[in-house]
Design brief:
The complex is a heterodimer of chains A (about 325) and B (about 260). With about 325 residues, chain A is mainly alpha-helical. Helix content of chain A is about 75%, strand content about 0%. In chain A, helix 2 (about 30-55) packs antiparallel against helix 9. The radius of gyration of chain A is 21 Å and the shape is globular. The termini of chain A are far apart. In chain B, strand 1 (about 1-15) and strand 2 (about 15-25) form a beta hairpin. Chain B has helices at about 40-50, 70-80, 95-105, 110-115, 120-140, 155-165, 185-200, 210-220, 235-240, 245-250, and strands at about 1-15, 15-25, 30-35, 55-60, 65, 80, 170-175, 205-210, 220-225, 230-235. Chain B has ten helices and ten strands. The model of chain B has no long low-confidence stretch (mean pLDDT about 90). The radius of gyration of chain B is 19 Å and the shape is globular. Chain B has two domains: about 1-80 and about 170-255, P-loop containing nucleotide triphosphate hydrolases (Rossmann fold, 3-Layer(aba) Sandwich), CATH 3.40.50.300; about 90-165, no CATH class. A six-stranded mixed sheet of chain B has the order 6-7-8-3-9-10, sandwiched between helices. A four-stranded antiparallel sheet of chain B has the order 2-1-4-5, covered by helices on one side. Classes of the chains: A mainly alpha (about 325), B alpha/beta (about 260). The interface between A and B is medium-sized, with 30 and 39 residues.
């Protein structure tokens, strides 16, 4: 595919998302719309964490921390600087508002990426459970740090964040995350990430700068987590540190493990399932989380390697499964 | 001009002197064997050459350059590659990917080019796959290139490790017990293959072996290591008769 075709394809998709947004958002039940947006945000989180945990094999449980940095940074940007920028820019609002929003998101992502760099550095010396503890601690440090900054709400939470996030943005960034991680993983750099997971000593001996790849995985993963945080903040118009505790980090880890460490499609599917599950289980009321946990336990027992394992979903599997069932039905 | 030179290299692990005042000079194009009983320090010598453990004392020079303090991936870039005693393949990856990883240091596509999938990226990717398939063919593994490497039989895993090591385009190849766990026929075949690739890729080879018989056939020169000290060095014929070597392998004679 040449450059022009690629750019046209991107514009085509953006147009499609915009049309979807304009058509669906006003008509859809706001509750369903919210779930849809949460699905998108969770897909971004799960896919980006999979790059760190699944593909590079560095077990991190600090994703909520990166998310918080991105969320608060972008919200602070659009809340404090946004109005001033809108005033000084002599551009129509429909154009300048998204500009401010994207600038805020990118700033949030960049700061989160910087935090990823800081966490990535201990990962050079630590592995396995030790690294997990460090990332967990780092996530909590970020949360408590934010809790004590009054300018961004402190313990009261950050309210009156402008409402910029819409279905369009969530769709756009979800697809962007998936495409970036997928293209990265299926390239010569992706094989370097994988080699670090498989055997660090051998990777190093084969000329892979394992240090660089570990840190890079953290930086890229954290960047997208930061974007996800920004999308969430500008959707709810309110941010509170309670949304970014280690429980949120565990949720994302669960999505990655459930989908399969090292499977992008697995992460996407698991993110959707784990977002829908608590909502679907609402009828059982008080026992909701009990059922949720039981279902997780059952899934992990039946498929400990995750839904897709290290592989990606492909259509041939479905065909195979269906043809087998058909054959069985005919045989019976 | 010596390709690899180790001068009075020592390494201590705590109070243990694993290798003591080790000297080795490899000329370009040589095939040298490093033998010795279990725990003699052979693999430690390899680990020092490849930068896994920096030596406590002494100097390592490769192609006239000091490589003591270089990290393993830099040493690989200089032109030293190795295999491992207990196979260390990238087990979950397909056979071809194992070789492609080793090509990585010679690739040019950046992170952004990979994400954007530029034309250059595709061209490079295609040429890499072609190169990798060609390399696998030499080892008779090209038909298995899409198999998950941990599923290969033992002998093929060992061959794949050598193929992977060659993909880094080395000048010096270090083979750590390449014939371990093979039967005599397989071993003989492997030794022929090693001779063959040495010629084909214009390599200098240093080979660790546990079993003396194996190296006698193909090495021009042999070093014998025991308790971290070189006890003998010379052509195979001389080594075979050396009383010190016999003692190290069979124990002292009872008088």
């Amino acid at each position: 595919m040449n450059q022009l075709k690629k750019i046209l394809l991107i514009i085509l998709f953006l147009g499609l998302f915009l049309v979807l947004d304009l058509l669906i958002s006003p008509r859809m039940n706001p509750y369903y719309l919210q779930i849809l947006i949460y699905c998108g945000i969770n897909i971004i989180l799960a896919v980006s964490l999979n790059l760190i945990n699944g593909f590079t094999g560095q077990f991190s449980i600090g994703h909520a921390g990166f998310m918080a940095i991105g969320g608060y940074t972008s919200a602070a940007f659009t809340f404090y600087l946004g109005p001033k920028i809108l005033e000084t820019l002599f551009l129509p609002l429909w154009f300048s508002k998204p500009l401010v929003f994207v600038a805020g998101l990118l700033l949030g992502g960049t700061l989160a990426a910087f935090a990823g760099l800081l966490v990535g550095i201990p990962s050079l010396r630590l592995r396995g459970d030790y690294l997990a503890i460090v990332t967990l601690g780092f996530g909590e440090i970020i949360r408590v740090f934010i809790l004590n900054i009054d300018a961004i709400g402190g313990a009261r939470g950050f309210s009156d964040v402008p409402k910029y996030t819409s279905l369009f943005w969530v769709l756009g960034f979800t697809v962007l995350t998936i495409v970036v991680v997928r293209n990265l993983v299926y390239s010569t750099h992706g094989r370097a990430f994988l080699s670090v997971r498989e055997d660090e000593v051998a990777a190093e001996a084969m000329g892979i700068n394992t240090t660089w790849y570990k840190v890079t995985a953290f930086v890229i993963g954290a960047f997208f987590a930061g974007i996800a945080g920004g999308l969430l903040g500008h959707y709810l118009q309110y941010l509170h540190t309670n949304s970014f505790t280690f429980i949120k980090s565990f949720e994302v880890v669960m999505m990655v493990v459930l989908g399969g460490m090292g499977s992008i499609t697995g992460s996407i599917l698991a993110a959707v399932i784990l977002t829908l599950l608590p909502e679907v289980l609402r009828p059982v009321k008080d026992y909701r989380m009990v059922f949720y946990s039981i279902l997780l336990v059952i899934l992990m027992i039946t498929r400990p390697q995750g839904i897709f394992g290290v592989r990606e979903f492909n259509w041939d599997w479905l065909k195979k499964i269906f043809s087998r069932k058909k054959a069985q039905a005919e045989g019976a | 001009m010596a390709l690899l030179e180790l001068k009075n290299v020592c390494i201590n692990f705590g109070g243990l002197k694993a290798v003591d005042k080790f000297n080795l000079t490899l000329q370009k194009g040589e095939l040298v064997g490093l033998i010795g009983p279990n725990g003699a320090g052979k693999t430690t010598v390899f680990n020092m050459i490849t930068g896994v453990y920096p030596p406590t004392e002494g100097e390592i020079r490769f192609a006239e350059k000091r490589t003591n303090s270089l990290k393993p991936y830099k040493i690989s870039a200089v032109g030293i590659s190795r295999t491992f005693q207990n196979i260390r393949l990238f087990g979950e990856l397909p056979v071809i990917d194992n070789v492609l990883v080793a090509f990585h240091q010679h690739t040019h596509a950046g992170l952004l080019a990979s994400v954007w999938r530029s034309k250059k990226f595709w061209q490079e990717e295609q040429s890499l796959v072609k190169k990798a398939t060609g390399l696998l063919a030499i080892f008779g593994l090209d038909t298995l290139k899409n198999e998950i490497s941990k599923n290969l039989p033992y002998g093929q895993q060992r061959r794949l490790e050598i193929a992977r090591a060659l993909a880094t385009e080395p000048k010096l190849l270090l083979l750590d017990e390449p014939a371990a766990g093979m039967n005599p026929q397989e071993t003989a075949k492997l030794m022929l293959l090693i001779k063959d690739i040495q010629k084909k890729f214009d390599l200098t080879i240093l080979l660790i072996e546990h079993d003396m018989q194996v190296v006698m056939g193909i090495c021009e020169r042999i070093l014998v290591l025991d308790y971290g000290v070189t006890i003998a060095e010379g052509p195979p014929e001389k080594i075979k008769k050396d009383p010190k070597v016999i003692e190290a392998y069979l124990g002292e004679e009872i008088h």
